[in-house]
Amino acid sequence: MNSIELQQNWEDDGLHEECGVFGMYDLDGNDVASSIYYGLFALQHRGQESCGISVSDTFGPRKVDLLKGMGLVNEVFNSENLSKLHGNIGVGHVRYSTAGESIPSNAQPLVINYVKGTLMLAHNGNLINANELRDELAYTGAIFQTTIDSEVIAYLVARERINAKTAQEAVTNAMKKLKGAYALVISSPRKLIGARDPFGFKPLCIGKRDNAYILASETCALDTIGAEFVRDVLPGEVVTIDKDGIKSDTSMCLPKAKEARCVFEYIYFARPDSNFDGVSVYHSRIMAGRFLAMDSPVEADVVVGVPESGNAAAMGYAMESGIPYGTAFVKNSYVGRTFIKPQQKSRESSVRIKLNVLKEAVCGKRVIMIDDSIVRGTTSDRIVQMLKDAGATEVHVRISSPPFLYECYFGTDIPSRDQLIAHNRTIEEINEIIGADSLGYLRVERLKEIAGGLGICTGCFDEKYPMEPPKEDIRGEYIK
Amino acid sequence: MNSIELQQNWEDDGLHEECGVFGMYDLDGNDVASSIYYGLFALQHRGQESCGISVSDTFGPRKVDLLKGMGLVNEVFNSENLSKLHGNIGVGHVRYSTAGESIPSNAQPLVINYVKGTLMLAHNGNLINANELRDELAYTGAIFQTTIDSEVIAYLVARERINAKTAQEAVTNAMKKLKGAYALVISSPRKLIGARDPFGFKPLCIGKRDNAYILASETCALDTIGAEFVRDVLPGEVVTIDKDGIKSDTSMCLPKAKEARCVFEYIYFARPDSNFDGVSVYHSRIMAGRFLAMDSPVEADVVVGVPESGNAAAMGYAMESGIPYGTAFVKNSYVGRTFIKPQQKSRESSVRIKLNVLKEAVCGKRVIMIDDSIVRGTTSDRIVQMLKDAGATEVHVRISSPPFLYECYFGTDIPSRDQLIAHNRTIEEINEIIGADSLGYLRVERLKEIAGGLGICTGCFDEKYPMEPPKEDIRGEYIK
Amino acid sequence: MNSIELQQNWEDDGLHEECGVFGMYDLDGNDVASSIYYGLFALQHRGQESCGISVSDTFGPRKVDLLKGMGLVNEVFNSENLSKLHGNIGVGHVRYSTAGESIPSNAQPLVINYVKGTLMLAHNGNLINANELRDELAYTGAIFQTTIDSEVIAYLVARERINAKTAQEAVTNAMKKLKGAYALVISSPRKLIGARDPFGFKPLCIGKRDNAYILASETCALDTIGAEFVRDVLPGEVVTIDKDGIKSDTSMCLPKAKEARCVFEYIYFARPDSNFDGVSVYHSRIMAGRFLAMDSPVEADVVVGVPESGNAAAMGYAMESGIPYGTAFVKNSYVGRTFIKPQQKSRESSVRIKLNVLKEAVCGKRVIMIDDSIVRGTTSDRIVQMLKDAGATEVHVRISSPPFLYECYFGTDIPSRDQLIAHNRTIEEINEIIGADSLGYLRVERLKEIAGGLGICTGCFDEKYPMEPPKEDIRGEYIK
Amino acid sequence: MNSIELQQNWEDDGLHEECGVFGMYDLDGNDVASSIYYGLFALQHRGQESCGISVSDTFGPRKVDLLKGMGLVNEVFNSENLSKLHGNIGVGHVRYSTAGESIPSNAQPLVINYVKGTLMLAHNGNLINANELRDELAYTGAIFQTTIDSEVIAYLVARERINAKTAQEAVTNAMKKLKGAYALVISSPRKLIGARDPFGFKPLCIGKRDNAYILASETCALDTIGAEFVRDVLPGEVVTIDKDGIKSDTSMCLPKAKEARCVFEYIYFARPDSNFDGVSVYHSRIMAGRFLAMDSPVEADVVVGVPESGNAAAMGYAMESGIPYGTAFVKNSYVGRTFIKPQQKSRESSVRIKLNVLKEAVCGKRVIMIDDSIVRGTTSDRIVQMLKDAGATEVHVRISSPPFLYECYFGTDIPSRDQLIAHNRTIEEINEIIGADSLGYLRVERLKEIAGGLGICTGCFDEKYPMEPPKEDIRGEYIK
C-alpha cells in the first residue's frame, strides 16, 4: 500500500552497476509502454534490483508518465499500472547494484524538467570522472538528489542545451565531458536519442517494427517484441530518431583500433541469443570452449557446463575435442532474490540448494567441467566436490575466461584485488584450492578472437585499460 | 515488497498544499527519529498523503538517513524501519495534496547534496513565484525532478551558499527571492534552521526538551513529546540552532501591521490545543462562536457542533447565548483514506456513513448547528436534513467563518470561484439551497478579533491580498 | 501478494471476544455485499482484528463467496474484491480478540458444507461449555480446524439438522446444548436465521429496507445503510427470514425476570446512537451521569468527559448538577492499531500521544472528570496529572460504572482479579493511587435504572452470575 | 498487511492437483522447520500455488505451529516467520491447482484437533470416491470447511482413531475406504507416518540425516538437505517413524503386477535428479529419447530439446542416432506466475517472450526437436515456426510420450477429451496442424521399459485404468 523509501546520501555510495536500457518511438502514435515492458523482460538478466518505464505522447501535451520501483519487472509492473502509462515514445531501464545501498530514488529512468522541457534518461555504464563532474556542477549551484551517474549526465545535457541548437548537439557536447563507459537512451518530447561511449564498452542496438523504432542493450529484446534488427549504434555515435527517421552524428567516434568493448558481455553478461557489433554471443562462447579444448586438452569421458553460462562453452569444448557433451547439473529455477540463505552452521548449503548433480551422468566418469569464471573461488570447490561425491573419477575444470587480476572501472562489479582468488596465485595454487584434477583458463590472446576480432578491453586481466584509470587516492574515496 | 512510483512531470501539477513540518536537534547526541515520529503524529491532521523523516549525526560522518513514503505516519513508519534512522539532528514532514497527482517523489523532506555538503529541507506553504524561479534556474542549467516548491527553495539556498559565509546567510539571501507563504525547517550537517515568510502566513514555533531544540508547525507537537514551548519564530525571522543555542536574524521582518497570518489556521486547520503567536486556537474558536451568538442570535433549545471542528464554536455560542450545548452527531472514527465511497445509485450515502444523529438529543427541539465553513455546500443540505429527519423542529445554521468568495494563492486549497456556493449568491439564496431555517456567517470584521488582534490575511473573503497575486493569465497556467 | 497464516492449535487459545454480526437477505435479488460492508463499517468499534463477508444467491446455484482477513473492514475490503461477492443473502462479521493468538483461520463468518448443503455462520459471544462440547463432538469423530466457538455451534447445528425438519428447528435444538452468551446470524441457502441466547447477554436487532431484511448487532448499522428498525430479536428467540417474511420461535425464551443483558453494552461497548431492547445507549449514559451527580456531588467549575465514551455521562452530570459542561481533551484521531508504542525509557508517553489537554478550558478551575471505567488503573493517574499540569486546581474523578471486582465468562475481556485495581482496595485507596481530589463510582443499584429497568447481568460487579460459572479448576484450563 | 481469503464452497470445485509432500522428525530434538523449507524448495516444481509448514515439539506441550499461504515457498516464508516455527517434528506441502478457484483455505498442511489430540496432514494425489466419502461423513454430522480431499482423509483417520490402538492402525483402516491416488505424510504429536496408495500412483521416499528421518515426494529433496536415501515407501505400505525407528505395515500392499505408477512422474513431473522405486528419472528420459530414435528415425543435422523437460530425451535421441546434440532455445528464466500475458491483438506472443531461438545453432540445418508431450497443441506450431524463421531447413518433431487420449482421474490435470489435440486425429493430421516435416510419438509399449519394468498406469493413453473410473454421470458433476 505504501511506497517506502530508505535513502542515504551519495557521499556514501559509489556503486558499480550493470544495467539494461530500452527506448521506443512509435511514429504511428501507438502506446509503447507494453512493448517496453516486454523488452525489459528480455533484458532482466542485466539488472534485477529495480526497473522503470517512462512514456510521453509526441502528439499530445508535453507530459511524462513515469513508473519505477524496486524489484523485477513483473513485480513492479502489472496490467493495471501499465495500462495507465500512455504515450508513443518512451524509455525503460533495469538496474543492478552490486554493493551497499539499493534505494528507490536511484531507480531509472530519470525524468527531469529543464530549460527546454522534459527529458527521460536511461543509462548503462560507469563514469570514472563522475565525482569531478559532480563537484564542478555543485560549484555552479547544482543540487543532487540521487547517487547515480545518470543525474550528472542529465545536468550536463541540460547545461549544454542552453546554447545548443538541438538536443542531439547537447548530448554530443555533454559527451565531451564524460569519461568512462556508457550506453544512453534519452527521450526529449519529440525525439529518441541513443548514444554509446567512444570506446564502445557497453552495447546498444537499433531495431524496427512496423513504423516504430527501438533502441536496446541487446538484440534479444528486439526478437522478444517481434522487431527486426537494423544495426548497432557505433561506439561514439549519437543517433537521433524522429519522424524523419534515423540521423547519425559520428563526430565523437574513435579509430576502430581504439575501441574497447567489455569482453564480459560475450563471456557472461549477455544472453546467448544476442548479437553485439556483428558477433553472436552464443558463437563466441562456443569458440571459447573450442579454444579451451585446443589450449588445455585433457582426456575425459564427458564435458559438462556449470549452468547456465557454462553450457555453450562446454558444447564448444565437446565439438573440438570429440568428447561427448553431457548434462551434469540440475538447477533449481526457483532460487531467486528473496531466497533465504542457509546459516553457516546449517546442514544445508547454498550451492546444494541451487544445484544438484545427475549421478547417472557422471558416476564412474572422467569429467571436464566448464565454468565462465572464478572470482573469489568460494563455490568452485563445492561444485567439484559434488561431482566427486556423485562418483566422478576425475574432475578437470576449464574456465572460459582468463584469470581476474585487476579492478574494473567501467561498470563491471569486481571485488578488490585481495579478494580475487587469482591475485598473487599460480594456476596450480588455485587448482589446489578448488580441489580439481586439473585447471585451465582461456588465454588472454584468445579474447579478441572470440569477439570476432573487434576491439575489446582486457583491463581486468592485464591492467591495460583503454583510458587512464582514476588515481589511487581518488579511487579509495570513489569506491565506498 | 516493492516501492512503486507513479510520477508525472511538474508542468501538469500546480498543487495547493497544506503541510506540517518538524525539526529537532539533540545537543547531547541522542537519536531524534523517534521523537520526530511522535511529533509528526501530532501534526498528522496537517497532511495525510505522505510523510518522511531524515536524520544525521552531528558527531559522526556527514551522511543522512532518509525514509519517506505515501501514507500516514503509522503506515510509513514501523519499529523496524524507524530503528534504522540514526542521528541527533533531523527533519520531518507530513504532506497533503489537494488535487491531481499525489506521487512518492513529491514526498518530503528533500535531501540534497550541494556545494557545501548535505541539506535536509521541509517546507509548508505555497510560493506564488515558483514558476518564474524555476524558469530562471532552468536557464542557468538547473534540472528539476519533482513538482514541489521545496526543490526551488533548495536550489536557491544551494546557489546562495556558494558565496555566503554561513548557511543562515544563504537562507536569508534565498528568502529575498521567494514570494508567498512558507515555513521552513532546514538542517545542515551541524545546524538546524527555521524560517517563516515575512507575512507570517504559516506558523512555526520553537520548543526545548532537556538539551534538545525543536521546531514545529504547531505547539501541540511540543506537548506530545513532552517539550516546553520556548517562543514562536517571528514572521520573517530566520533562527539558527547549533551547539551555542538559538541565533536570530530578523533582517527580513516586516512592520507588524503588514503581517498576514492565514486565519484558517485558527478557524479550521490547526488542532485546538495549539497556540499561534500567543493566541490559543481553542480560544479563538470559542470567540468565533460567541461573536456568532452576538451577531446572528436566534431562539433555540440546543446548540450543537458539526464534529470535530464545529464543537468549540458551538460551545462558545452556547456560553454567549445561554442556550444549552449538546451533542447531536456520532462520527464513525474508522472512516479513513481508503474508505470505499458509495456509488451514486446506492442506498447508502457518504454523509450517513460518516455521521449519525443522536435522535434523543435533537428530537422535538429547535437546533442551532455550528459548522466551520461551507465551501461547495454539497454536504450541508444533507446534514440539515438528517437533523430534521431525527425530529428537530427547526435547524438554524451558523458558520464560524465568513463566506468564501475568492481564490487563495498561499497554500489553502480553495476551488475556483464558480464552484464556491457563496460566489454570486446572497445568504438567503445559500440558505435556500441547504434547507435550513436560518443561516448566519461570521462577519469579516470579527476575524482580527478572534485572532487576538494579530495581522491576518483575509484575501479569500474580501480579495484584499497582502501581496499582489499572480496575474490572471499566469494563474491560468499555474493552476492545473 | 500472499495470504499468510500463522496458526496455533486451539488448546492454547481460550479467547474472550467481543464481536459484531450482520446479516442481510434481499428478497428482490439485489446484491447485498456492499450493504453488509457499510453495516460492518458501522459496527467496526465492536471488533478491529479481523472481518469477513460471505454471500450466496438464493435464485442461483448453491454456492457461497467468502472473503475474510485480518484487519479493519476498509483494509480487508476494496472496490475490486467487494465487487466479486455476488449474492442476495449474506452474513458479515467483525472480530476482536483480546488475548493471545489472533489468527486468520479464526476470522468469521464460518462457511461450512454439511448434510443439507451450506451454512454461513457469524457469532458474537462466549460459550462457557465450549470445551465440554468439543470433547463430546470429538468422541464421535469431529475434527476441529479453528479455536472459535462458532465451529462448535456449526457442528451442533449440522448434527441436529440430520433429524430436524427445518434449519430453524436444528438451530433451536442446538441452542439447548449451548451455555453462555451468543447472538447468532446464520444463513442457509434460502433462509436467514437470527438467534439470541435466552439470557439476552448480546444484542441483535431486525431491520428492513425496501424488500430486504437485516439482522445486526446494533441499530446504528441500520441507520448507516438507510434501513428502518423493525424490532429487537428477543432473548432466547430464533427468527427465520425467508421469502414469506419473519417467523419466530420463542420456545427457548425465559421469563423476563431471568434476562441478563451485559450492562457494558450500555456503558461502554455500543455506539451512543444505538438502541437495545428499547433503551437508547446515549440516554443510558446521560442517566449514568445524572446518577453520579446525585450520588457523588462535588463543587466544581466545569464537568469534562474522557473521550469518547465519557462525554455523554459528563453531559448528564452537567445537566443534573448545573455545573457547566466543557471540553478538556483533544484526542489524536490517527492513533490506530499499528501505532508504535513508546518504549518505557522514552520521554514520550502513550497517554500524552493520544490525549492532550486544552489548557484554556481547565486552567485555574476545579474540574470534574468523568470516565466510563477503571480496569487496571494504569492510565487514570496520568490523565489526572495532565489536568493538574494544565492548571486545574482540583480534579474530581467520577466513574460511570461500579468497580470491577470479578471475572466475566460471557464475552467481555476482563483481566484476572489480581490485576483489577478495585480488587481488595477501598475507594479511598484507589483514589490515592490515581491522585485525584475525590473519586466516585456509579452504584450497582443504579445499573438497572440506566438500562431502563431491563434485566441485566451484574456478575463482574457483585459475582451474581445468571448461570453457574465454570468451576475453578476448569476455568484454570479454559483461560489460557 | 492483511491476510485476505476469497473462498468458494466445495461443491463448485473439483480440482485435479499435483502436489509435493515432505515430513521430518529429528529424534535429537532439533528444529526442523528450516530443513522442511529447503525440502519444499526442492519440490517447488510439484506445486507453485500455495505452500505450508507445520511443526510440533515432541519433547514439549502438544501444540502445533502452522504457517501457510498462497505463493512460492520463498514468497510465503522469510527468515522472520520461519524462525517462529519451533519443533522437531513437522510436515510441509506445496500445492498446484490447475483450474478454477485457488484459495488460501485449501492450502496444506491441514492441522486438526481430534479425539486423540492433534494431527498434521499433507497429501499428494486425488481420490475418486471423495464425494461419496464426504456424503457419508456428512450424514453422520461432519462439516467441511475446505474443498480438498485431505479434509476427507483427516475425518476418516479421526473416526478410525476412536477405536484403533495406534495412529498407524487408524491410518491403515482409513486407507481401506480410500479409492484413488495418494501419498500421505501425517504427523501425530509423537509419530511421523507415511503412506502410499496400493497402486503406487504417487511416489514417497524415506531419508535420514544424522538422527533425523525424512519423508519426501522425491529424492532430490533429500539431496538438497544433505540427507541419505534410505528406501522408497512401498505401494500400499504404511510406515511409522518414532523414537524406536521405522515400523512398517504392508497389509494393504497389492501383488507387484497390479502396481500402477503414474508414468508422467518419469516423463515430465519429477526433477531429473530424482529416483523413484529404483529408477532414475534422468535415465528414463534418456531411454525415451533412445526409443524414439529407434522407432521414429529420421535424417537430420542436430537434435534439440524444448527446455527444460525435452533436453534429456534429446540427448538420448542424439546418443542413439549419432546425430549431434545441440541447444536451440534460450528460455527467459524470469517468466513466472505473475507475468503479464500479451493481449491477443498485441505484436508480442507468449511463446516468443518465454523462448528465443539461437539462430547460429539451427540456421541451414535439419532439426529434430524433442518435446515431452503435446496436450492441446497450442504452442507446438509456434515453436516449429520459430525454428523455421531462424533458418532451419527441416523440423522433425519427436514426442517422448504417447498421444494423450483419455482423462486422468488420479491427480494429473488433463483437459477433457475434446480439447486434446490427439483425440480423434491421426498423427498425420496432428503434424499438419503443428506444421512440422514429420512427427513421431513414443509407443505405449515402450513406457514400461523406460520405467525400468515397474508397474505403471497407462490410462490416459489407452483407457486401461488400474481401477474402475468414476461413472460418466458422476464425473459430470465431479469435474466442475
Automatic annotation (TrEMBL), chains A, B, C, D:
Residues annotated as catalytic: 19
Lineage, highest ranks first: Bacteria, Bacillati, Bacillota, Clostridia, Eubacteriales
Homology family: In the C-terminal section; belongs to the purine/pyrimidine phosphoribosyltransferase family.
Keywords: 4Fe-4S, Glutamine amidotransferase, Glycosyltransferase, Iron, Iron-sulfur, Magnesium, Metal-binding, Purine biosynthesis, Transferase
Record-listed E.C. numbers: 2.4.2.14
Swiss-Prot/TrEMBL cofactor(s): Mg(2+); [4Fe-4S] cluster
Binding, [4Fe-4S] cluster: 262, 408, 457, 460
PROSITE patterns given in the database record: GATASE_TYPE_2
Sites where the protein binds Mg(2+): 309, 371-372
Function: Catalyzes the formation of phosphoribosylamine from phosphoribosylpyrophosphate (PRPP) and glutamine.
Cofactor notes: Binds 1 Mg(2+) ion per subunit. Binds 1 [4Fe-4S] cluster per subunit.
Domain Glutamine amidotransferase type-2 as annotated: residue spans: 19-244
Catalytic activity: 5-phospho-beta-D-ribosylamine + L-glutamate + diphosphate = 5-phospho-alpha-D-ribose 1-diphosphate + L-glutamine + H2O
Pathway membership: Purine metabolism; IMP biosynthesis via de novo pathway; N(1)-(5-phospho-D-ribosyl)glycinamide from 5-phospho-alpha-D-ribose 1-diphosphate: step 1/2
KW Coiled coil (keyword) present: no
HAMAP family: PurF
Name of the protein in question: Amidophosphoribosyltransferase
GO molecular function, one term: amidophosphoribosyltransferase activity
